[in-house]
Write a structure and sequence with these properties.
Distance between the termini: 40 Å
Membrane topology: Multi-pass membrane protein
GO molecular function: hydrolase activity; transmembrane transporter activity
Pfam family, one: BPD_transp_2
Main location: membrane
Order of helices and strands: HHHHHHHHEHEEHHHHEHHH
Number of domains: 1
Number of helices: 16
CATH topology: ABC transporter involved in vitamin B12 uptake, BtuC
CATH superfamily: ABC transporter involved in vitamin B12 uptake, BtuC
Structural class: mainly alpha
Number of strands: 4
Subcellular location: Cell membrane
Largest sheet: 2 strands, antiparallel
Length: 333
């Protein structure tokens, strides 16, 4: 009896070693590529573009790339909270436009840039809140609600602006767009701060636990006493808030509020979430993954531009990568 007991730990350790996958087995495991799609894709793009166009790895270009990615990173965070509940926010780009228009109008009216920024973010957050209420209280599919909100908010933005761009020459926004702290511009620090705050909220708060539980199995979450409707409303409100922050960064970058929807912001925010390994069925999410996915998409467009690839082909490349990522996601553990 004593011999097997003495050998038992040895057998257990051996079994543990045998269960540990080898490097070759890991690389052949589809779930590995599903979990690390954004990281592998970003590294691959950096290598390919760095070899084919050395200027891609220049400090100036990398700084420009990070600045360009900041807006998409913020939007992908908002979209992540929604997708984590098994939803989707199609009104994201329209909310960005509305926030920009309100910022421009309030600033042009002479009420000051700080009040303009607050009202812009409040308006986009209200759009997200409205989405959440309609989806939960009205029991309407998120796709239908946010598609309707997209159309309605777009019309509201056009009415408020008269279809004309509004110039915003605020020194504050100019400093936000062109200033820097250390190696990064202010927009990059805004994006980094958003990633850190969102990560803490998702993984180190009760709200994050409730969010993932709601997305994983809403009936079970309700049975456990989680107020799933409130969680969903909060998720869409966060998405709207992120759209407001993105609107500030966008106006600061281009110097005006444009009454036009940038559809690439919506499509790329969803693409970044998919590339980041967030389950489209809810219950599984990360913040760093979509942020890296946003960097990957920005790097792709940046590299293709440096290679003088026509802008007409760039959406095709982005679409192909997203479809590939969606296929790989099927093998996600």
């Amino acid at each position: 009896m004593s011999i097997p007991e003495q050998n038992a730990p040895v057998h257990t350790a051996g079994a543990a070693e045998e269960s540990r996958p080898s490097l070759s087995a890991l690389l052949l495991d589809p779930s590995f590529w599903a979990d690390w799609a954004s990281v592998v894709g970003l590294v691959g793009l950096v290598i390919v573009f760095g070899i084919s166009q050395p200027v891609f790895l220049s400090i100036a270009n990398l700084q420009a790339l990070l600045l360009a990615a900041a807006i998409l990173v913020v939007l992908s965070i908002g979209q992540t909270f929604v997708v984590a509940t098994a939803g989707i926010d199609l009104s994201l780009a329209a909310a960005v436009m509305l926030g920009a228009i309100i910022l421009g109008l309030v600033d042009a009216a002479g009420y000051g840039i700080f009040l303009a920024c607050v009202l812009a973010v409040a308006a986009t957050s209200a759009v997200g809140f409205l989405n959440g209420v309609l989806i939960t209280a009205g029991r309407i599919p998120d796709f239908v609600v946010t598609l309707g909100t997209l159309s309605g908010v777009t019309g509201l933005g056009l009415i408020l602006s008269g279809g004309e761009p509004i110039m915003v020459g605020s020194p504050f926004l100019l400093r936000l767009a062109s200033g820097s702290f250390g190696p990064f511009g202010y927009p990059v620090w805004v994006a980094i701060s958003a990633v850190l705050v969102a990560h803490i909220a998702l993984y180190h708060t009760r709200f994050g636990v409730h969010l993932l539980a709601t997305g994983g199995q809403v009936e079970s979450a309700s049975a456990l006493g989680i107020r799933t409707n409130r969680v969903k409303i909060a998720a869409y409100t966060i998405s709207g808030f992120c759209a407001g922050i993105a609107a500030l960064l966008l106006v600061a970058r281009i110097g005006s509020a444009e009454p036009q929807i940038n559809t690439s912001l919506l499509l790329n925010s969803v693409a970044a979430v998919v590339l980041g390994g967030v389950s489209l069925f809810g219950g599984r999410a990360s913040i760093l993954g979509p942020a890296i996915g946003a960097l990957m998409l920005t790097a792709l467009v940046n590299g293709l531009t440096l290679l003088s690839v026509s802008a007409f082909y760039q959406p095709l490349a982005v679409g192909a990568i997203v479809v590939l990522a969606a296929l790989i996601m099927r093998y996600q553990k």
